[in-house]
Input
Amino acid sequence: MALQVNVNDILSQLYQHRHVVEFLFANRENITVNELLSREDLSQDQYMKLKSLDLVYEYESVVSLNDAVISMFEDFMEIGEVTPGFINDYINELRRHIRFYQEVHEHRFLRSIKKYLKRINIALSREIIKLQKNVDDTYKNEANYRIKIQKLEDYREKRDTIIDFIRKTEEIITDTRGLFTLTNDPELYGIVNALKAGLIENLDFLIEIQTDITDYINKIQFQLDVYVKAQRLKEIKDHGTLHYRTNFNEVIKAVNPLRFNGIKGPRTKVAIDFLFTDEGHVLCKKVAEKYKISRLMMRGIAGKLPSNFKDQLIDQQIKLDVEKLVE
Output
């Protein structure tokens, strides 16, 4: 007979051994029994208690958390592996529980509908984020051109699959709009509205991903074509047939490219202090006329400052009547 436990026992054990649970959750595949029992916060009896409650499993001396516990943490923290297969399963389960609710209007089926609506929204968003990251990483890090193109093509198919899931979800929401309205459930209404907004936003993201994939493939294909042509040209050149079996010389002679003539600045050894003198100004004027530099040609010699320049500045300053301010 199965061991009878209650929620209080499970919660108390998870809380009492929360550090062990955290340790096992972070290291899910390679913790042995000896490593776990070597911890100071877990004894042999406590470990057997966790096993008796099925909170941990032991297989070939390797310890892991119960899959249900791992799934609970991953669902609550919105982490873990998500695949298109999971999203398809969520959509099928959603349809199944909608049929159940149409037959029998029970709250347990409505609760399952809410759960799968939330899961579809979260899973689609996470899958799109992962898809965008994979596309960028493939373009930046994959060295082989052909493998890079093949991976991007696979991601394009995956994008089309996600769009198909979004269309199916929109179809379900449209078909069951009347049913959801009759439930008169505010929580369900909020979940459906959040899902609708998420689907629209995810479609926009997928359009951007498609644009990136197309742009990346075009760039890679252009680089690949240039590489193939250069490789072929090198092979012809190495065999000595470039100039004798092709019209390479005639083609090169027929090309009439424009030569780029950059404006070279004049080399000068004139001291900077000399340019501030009257003679330096005359020299700058000659250079400006020679090289057609209009901004230097318009400049003239500044006149001398008057001897009473400082006195004029003082007269032009605003004087405050301190006595009037006091009054």
